[in-house]
Every structure is written in structure tokens, then in C-alpha cells.
């Protein structure tokens, strides 16, 4: 995004936001910097299966659970087309594959504030049968660790869940149906499982632990301070 300057009543504070849009303007003073690191400021998330980063999403079911299945309901054609295009792209990237799983959760869309569609999987039955994770959730008082600093950088991940692999044995549990009659299963962590935030936070914490003196993390938000 273009630089933005905010003023308050007491002091002058400058908040500058930079993103992939700068890569379209070679005259921008920060063009060279963002060009060098264009792989981390892209508007488009990686379209390949991610590497094994040491943490995989695991789904442990309550003992005695059999099948978590909910019938897919009809949707308007516009949503059906969006869903089919979404899974076609994810299949081409190797993130999903056709499934024969006895489990199945329906898929639908909700409209985002920007007018685009958000993909939603109704994992209600799966989540109800999932043993809750005990991974510590980050506290908002991580701000205290940034006290005394004057320069801050906030980084927000794009589609971070899709950068984390599923445990192989749990892939059939992620099976989702579509209105066009397809059944897909996720090889990466989908959005919707109840323990997904805890798994993602565990990965982010592990990756940035060596830099914790100047990097704070809160799920998919990363704060660098000095």
C-alpha cells in the first residue's frame, strides 16, 4: 500500500505501510528493497505444497468416534463456480487430492467486506469430536515486551495455514464435499478445524524462538521491534 501518515494531538507519529504495490513503481524509494525481498511481500501466496517445517496439524478424535459426516447442501451457481475454481487451483498446487474418505464436511462461501468470497468448511461434527489442544495461546500482553522500542514492523502472513502440512494419518478427516459432487481431502492444514489456531501458533513460535528478543508473534501477526 502507499505510505500513510497519521497524526495525533500530542506527538507526530509516522506509520508507513509497504506492500507488493510498490513493485509496480520503480521510482519509489523503497522499490529496490522490496524487489530484493519480493518473495515475502507478494500478494499471491505460494501455489505449491509446502516443505515439512517440523510441525504438522494433528486431529485426535475422542475415543469411540466413528464417522464425522454432514451432507452437502445446494448453493447458488455463483458460489458453486467459485468453489470449483478454488479447488481446481488447490489441486493444481498439490494441496488437495480427490478423496474416498468416509468422513465429509460441506463447503460454502461467505461474502467478505471487499466483495470477494471466503471459502468455509462446516467442520462442526469433526470439531465436536476433536480432543482440544493444550498448546498455550499467546497473550495480548506481548506488547509489554516491546516497551521502550521506537521502531516497529508489523508483518501479516497470507494464507498461513496452507503453509503447514497435515499429519498423514489425519488427511482423510479433512475430507470436504462440494455442491458439484466432488470430495476433496487436504494435504495442508485447512481453515476451520478447532485446533488449527493452536497448531499454527506452535509453528510460528518455534520458527521465531531464536529471535524472541526482538520479534513477538501473535498467531499470524509478527512484530519486529528495536
Quick summary:
The chain has four helices and ten strands.
Can you lay out the helices and strands and say which pair or pack?
Layout: E1 6-7, E2 12-13, H1 31-36, H2 77-92, E3 96-98, E4 107-111, E5 117-121, H3 124-128, E6 152-156, E7 176-177, E8 183-186, H4 196-208, E9 215-218, E10 221-225
The CATH superfamily of the largest domain bears the name: HIV Type 1 Reverse Transcriptase, subunit A, domain 1
Strand order of the largest sheet: 3-8-7
If helices are DSSP runs of H or I spanning 4 or more residues, what is the number of helices?
4
What share of residues are in beta strands?
15-25%
- Give the uncertain stretches in residue-range form: 1-12
What this model shows, in words?
This protein is an alpha+beta fold. It has 2 domains: 1-43, no CATH class; 51-225, HIV Type 1 Reverse Transcriptase, Chain A, domain 1 (Roll). The protein is 18% helix and 16% strand. It contains 4 helices and 10 strands; from the N terminus they run ββααβββαβββαββ. It has helices spanning 31-36, 77-92, 124-128, 196-208, and strands at 6-7, 12-13, 96-98, 107-111, 117-121, 152-156, 176-177, 183-186, 215-218, 221-225. The protein has a 3-stranded antiparallel sheet with strand order 3-8-7, with helices on one face. The chain has a 3-stranded antiparallel sheet with strand order 6-10-9, covered by helices on one side. A hairpin with a 2-residue loop joins β9 (215-218) and β10. It is globular. Residues 1-12 have low confidence and may be disordered.
Amino acid at each position: 500500500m502507499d505510505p500513510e501518515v497519521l497524526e495525533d494531538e500530542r506527538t507526530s507519529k509516522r506509520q508507513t505501510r509497504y506492500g507488493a504495490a510498490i513493485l509496480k513503481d520503480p521510482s519509489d524509494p523503497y522499490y529496490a528493497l522490496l524487489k530484493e525481498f519480493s518473495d515475502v511481500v507478494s500478494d499471491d501466496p505460494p501455489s505449491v505444497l509446502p516443505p515439512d517445517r517440523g510441525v504438522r496439524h494433528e486431529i485426535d478424535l475422542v475415543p469411540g468416534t466413528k464417522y464425522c459426516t454432514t451432507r452437502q447442501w445446494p448453493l447458488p451457481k455463483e458460489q458453486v463456480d467459485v468453489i470449483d475454481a478454488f479447488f481446481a487451483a488447490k489441486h493444481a498446487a498439490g494441496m488437495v487430492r480427490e478423496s474416498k474418505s468416509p468422513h465429509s464436511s460441506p463447503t460454502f462461501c461467505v461474502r467478505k467486506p471487499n466483495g470477494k468470497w471466503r471459502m468455509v468448511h462446516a467442520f462442526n461434527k469433526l470439531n465436536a469430536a476433536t480432543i482440544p489442544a493444550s498448546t498455550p495461546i499467546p497473550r495480548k500482553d506481548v506488547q509489554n515486551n516491546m516497551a521502550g522500542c521506537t521502531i516497529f514492523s508489523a508483518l501479516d502472513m497470507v494464507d498461513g495455514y496452507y503453509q503447514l502440512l497435515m499429519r498423514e494419518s489425519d488427511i482423510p478427516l479433512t475430507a470436504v464435499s462440494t455442491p458439484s459432487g466432488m470430495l476433496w481431502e487436504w494435504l495442508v492444514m485447512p481453515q476451520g478445524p478447532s485446533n488449527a489456531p493452536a497448531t499454527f501458533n506452535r509453528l510460528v513460535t518455534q520458527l521465531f524462538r531464536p529471535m524472541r528478543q526482538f520479534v513477538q508473534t501473535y498467531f499470524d501477526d509478527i512484530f519486529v521491534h528495536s
